[in-house]
TrEMBL record:
Keywords of the record: Membrane, Transmembrane, Transmembrane helix
Domain of life assignment: Bacteria
Natural source organism: Ammoniphilus resinae
Positions of transmembrane segments: 48-67, 73-95
UniProt name for this protein: DUF3784 domain-containing protein
Length: 106
């Protein structure tokens, strides 16, 4: 439960930093900024930041659901797979759209 909560908090903070920051910092690498053109960088960071915020909230909520309600394991795992792969797919799509490569930058 606590691992999921802290991982969720990490992704929410990472998403907020990506949404507002334009310079390299602890959560945003220099390679990410260099791979995206300057005119597309704000749009890319805003969209990826939103996905990271959603992913963080999702992971934290799923941790709380697991702790308090103890759902069936197959439903729990399938929910993680569906929403997790959807978020990762959207990040890969945005990387391809803005930088031209399929490198996954979480």
């Amino acid at each position: 439960m606590f691992a999921q909560l802290f991982l969720g908090i990490y992704f929410v903070v990472k998403g907020i930093v990506e949404h507002y920051a334009r310079k390299p910092n602890l959560f945003l690498s220099e390679g990410t900024i260099q791979s995206i053109s300057k005119e597309n960088l704000p749009s890319y960071l805003k969209r990826v930041g939103e996905i990271h915020i959603f992913l963080g909230i999702f992971i934290a909520i799923m941790g709380q659901i697991e702790h308090w309600y103890n759902p069936e394991i197959w439903i729990f795992i399938m929910t993680y797979i569906i929403f997790g792969f959807a978020c990762i797919g959207m990040i890969v799509y945005l990387n391809k759209k803005y930088s031209g490569d399929y490198i996954l930058r979480l």
